[in-house]
Give the backbone structure.
Amino acid sequence: MYNTEIRGPLILGNKSLGQITDDITSPLYARPKFWWLAGLGISSLMMLLGFWAIYVTISTGIGTWGVNNTVGWGWAIINFVWWIGIGHAGTAFSIFLLILRQEWRSSINRAAEAMTVVAVGCAALFPALHMGRIWNAFFILPYPNTRGPLWVNYNSPLFWDFIAISAYLLISASFWYLGMIPDFATIRDHAKSKVRKGVYGWLAMGWRGSVGEWKRYEGLSYILGGIAAVLVVSVHSIVSTDFAVSVEPGWHTTIFPPYFVVGAIFSGFAMVMTLMILLRKIYKLEDYITDRHMQNVAKILIFVSLIMGTAYLTEIFLAWYSGNRYEIFTFFHNRITGEFTVQFWIMFVCNAIIPQLMWFKKIRSNVLILFIISILINVGMWFERFNIVITSLAKDYLPSAWASYSPTFVEISVYLGTLGIFIFGVLLFFKYIPMIAISEVKAVNKYQIENRKSKGESKKN
Amino acid sequence: MEKHWRSIEEFHGGKDPGPETEAGQEHRNAVLDLLDSRAVDSPATRRDFLKLFGFSIATATVVSSCEKPVQKAIPYLIRPEEVTPGQASYYASTFYDGSEYCSVLVKVRDGRPIKIEGNHRSPVSHGGTSARVQASVLNLYDEARYRDPMISREPVSWEETDRLVREKLSSGRRTVLVTPTVISPSTREAIGLFLKAYPGAEWIQYDETPASGIREAHRILFGRSLIPGFHFDTADYILSLDADFLGTWLAPVEFTRDYASTREVSSTRPRMSRHVQVESGFSVTGTSADIRLPVTPRESQLMLAAIYNRVADATGYPSLLAPPPVHDVEAMTAGLLEHRGRSLVVSGSNDPDVQVLVGGLNYMLGNYGQTLDLDRCIMLKQGDDAKFVDFVASLENGEVDNLVLVNVNPLYSLGGFDALGKAGFTVYAGTAMNETAEACRVVCPDHHYLEAWGDAEPVTASYSLQQPCIRPIFNTRAFQDSLLAWAGETQSYGDLLRSWWKENLAPSAPEGFEAWWKHTLQQGYLEKEPGHPVLEYTPPRVALEPAESGLSLILYQPVSLNDGRYANNPWLQELPDPVSKVCWDNYLAVSPADAEEKGLRDEMVVTLDGIAVPVLVQPGQARGTVSLALGYGRTRAGKVGDHLGINGFRWITRRNGHRCYVNDRIRMEATGETYPLARTQTHHTMEGRPIVRETTLEEYRKDPCAGNHFHVETEAHHQTLYPGVKFDGFHWGLVVDLNKCTGCNNCIVACTAENNVATVGKEEVRNRRIMHWIRIDRYYSGEPGNPQVLHQPVICQHCDNAPCENVCPVSATMHSNEGLNQVAYARCIGTKYCINNCPYRVRRFNWFKYVKNDRFDFNQNSDLSRLALNPDVTVRERGVIEKCSFCVQRIQEKKMEAKLENRALTDGEVQPACVQSCPAGALVFGNLNDEGSEVSRLKKQERNYHLLEELHTLPSVGYLTRVRNSPPGSPGNHEEQNEHNG
């Protein structure tokens, strides 16, 4: 089915299995290039700045941020939701496309999953940092204690949040790692230096590629995949309840869970697109990450963008239709017009309008434009979170308490720091882990399938 | 009883050596043996020894390595009488700072005064206080206080000081003693002794903000220099011309109480006074008015003259020559004539010509003897401006050899008082550092009023006592004692006070004096029958011809700093102005029309006669006028108050020899600069939301629900799937009567003092991080040129369905079984989710460490000023949420008291700090479960509603609608626009 006239092959260039291994693992053996070292240097500097900002935040207080007694959550929570959204794509890719039997995903899912793990790690930093007393953060754990015992508040969305994010981080990291085990073994087998052999051997956990191992491997993949599929939906639904459970105008809506999940997939796929374009360009992996991949992701983005636009319009419509004066104010006088109008329209244009350009094949096939659009989508998604968090809080019920909010240098530095962590992590990933799942790609390789067909073998492995 | 047995041995009375017993025994033995060192032949092994040894070493290491802060808590060796550690004592005393009087109860905990409460028994102040009174406790622990007597800035002993002063005083030709108004009869006695000891010495009373115009006017009209007593409670029609009688004018605490009593509206008493305020700037009094007219000082005088003439015509008195008024005065004249004997005209002007007309008007209306009292006069502000002018002239001529200044600050408050240096020898006696003291040769530090004896006669024949509540903290001496020492007297001032009371006030039986004295001291006041002087009225003969003027500068006393004497008090500096909501600075209030014409916006800087001052566009400011608060621009006030704002006293003018607060000769020029102002509220309209509900008296009479139909509607729609909340014992609640609240800010400072609320400073106020647990929201409605103002005190609403409670992940905020919404600081991890989910935004986060932090060098950064902290309330750590607790510590204290006395709590016994000292009685606290309690009674009123009640938060705080007694068609009567229907 993979070499039909309509679809064409998934991997171009008639690669042999050995070629695939070489193509994908060659950057691992090559000396680091200048751009890589430069990127590592810049991201390290950003991380340093971030660590300084974190130190200031923890040692001096949240007062070093721009949040106040009206707007209790600021950039920290915007960035938290933003990162969590980006961290959605990897698992969504692996699981949903797996379920939908979209085999083309195998070229990208490794990078997407790596991105997930780093992004969720970045995200998890923010709720911890924005706590006033981070040294007492363990209070949020439901552990038996001598204070009564005093349990956590199971009604609080923040507690659900904590559980959801930690579960998601654990599962997506396990899933990612599991997928890498056969590839680590491949590198181990090819490795020449002892250190490399040792490290990758340790990471490969003694993988030999026997039939029994593959069987267990697949079984575990499906179990973890099944759990992760639920988590992909649950984690952002639960993040959305942080807002939806409250009384704030613009927050208190039932549309939030699906709206957040879709938004997360949107930003995650956009980030996948950004990374894909960089990957294939830098490492010349156009044969693996083909134009068709780009087109497919673009099509998904068009569809999700339509959902986003619908969600925005639904919110606005319901604000008007409810007749609730506070909702009407928030949407019509504080977002569409008013103090935060610029942020609202950046969000709307970037998320609901610009992706529609990809209906045109010309645009869809222009990698540069796709790259720009993918970046714009993540800018738009950042502003969506800004709109939700800040506009509702800044002007809610009592006009006497209305305030504004602008971030401080420390706050911005924390964000830059997490960007640094992300870039740093992705660069390390480029260098030390096969960027494409070798074993999976081999499974969908045209050459192999053809050979297999001619020998009348089964499709499996 | 039948015998049960388990084995034959047991049946025979032996002990059953069952296996369980044996094992248990063995286990116990092993444990005991481990610790029993005597047992040589015990089964304790080397292993056990090592275990114990290791454990001990580890424990010792861990324990000793934990650094413990050194606590300086030293128990009493001999417990002082009356002091029970942990229990507060209250002492009746008197607050008098030279311009304001209040009868107070001082709360003393472990020997230190920590809170000022109003004395409810006082016939003068009736249990109310003002923001200044509440904050005065902090001045006791002010680091700017002088600690030792000084000669030429060098600390010396009192003996040395006295020697020098006496030597100089006896050698000089002319000695002048300058004090603020002395209302203490015994101090007058002491001053008399001093003056007697130095023949030729003069005594001058100097008020920073004088009221000599009223005294002079009464001298002209009645032949006696006096300020009559004002009875706002009996006035049905109040016309106030620029008199901020609810804020700073004369006796605001007394006036607020009297005034508020006429604003109490209920279905059984559907009437209230009508208050007309004619003023240039927007004062806190103007915000309460039913009709407010913004006019220039000139227009105000023309109106006064016109009303005078019309009333004179109607009552048969001679009218005066005056230009026609710019505004229509018919309605006011009619109102006054209709309420003859039940009306009251007051003016804040210090121009005797104006005050003469006001006095004449009141006389023609028959108000003297009704709303104005000539028997019980106000004894405050006795300073004589004319006399002071002569003194300054002679000082400049070098005719004064010795100058003794007591608690006055003319160097600051009298523009160009540079003549001080011309006096041969200067002595300053006062509590804290100020500009004048720093320029004097000898400084004799005075006690703070909480450390000193004293008495007062604020109103004729109404006396009150002041007693020391703490041993003097520093090497200070009451200034009366200083005067007595210099006069060569051997008796102390305390003895003199007692003997004066014994001779002049005590009942005749001398053996009963001790009991009488103790009783009087305990209740703090003494009422005597005043004399009834018969005063002859002479109709005035003045021609009022106010000059045309360009821009008028109005100088006013702000509610917080008054005349600048509290500049170093961080609580008052951070207290937002009741109208503009600006703190930490003064500014030039410009009317919206003028601002538009001159292209001025908020925070732009203009120069006023060359001095830069930031602009604030103030709705309701009269066109052609600008206002500037006095009290700022201090240069020697201390670490908090120095160099904040600009000194407005330099623009004080003189009319007929009296200092006036209006200056018509100013030049205002725009500059391109801006200057940031800190405001606690930046949005000023309600956006049509039913937040403060108002109606007019007329509508209210027709329908008691007027303006509040939304409440009825919402109540009918409250639906829930969950069972309603029930409280078995108490259910605490509070009701705010918006019609009585004047927005005076007293509650904010009371709460700050009671609950150790941190001061955060200008920068943090700008960042919207003020910590006040109670804030007074102020909304404008109507035209910007002359808006109506609505005040609304907002505290934690203690919702029974609180949105903040269910979102806290660690249950740090929860509901008590008495309906209180509580915060467990120790549990809070600071997610700030509750801030976001509180629709009232009353929760406060500790963004920084506000205690012992040089960045917040206000009142919690030194050991001295931290003495003012209330030990019953936790000082919050950085990173936790705090908010109003309904003063839970007070509830617990009273509950405990009642329990020990084995009785039920009575209604009104528990009073949070804000309720206790509200001069207007606008706040009522109590048990909602008690049908008979005052708070339940008010909650049943048709005027009652809850803030944001449509959210189904079920608040325990209720508000009573604001009712305006505005005639139809007036700006205050806009019923149609304000009827809010969901």
The CA atoms of residues 237 and 343 of chain B lie 4 Å apart. Chain B has five domains: 8-65, 150-210+383-463+473-503, 213-378, 552-679, 694-978.
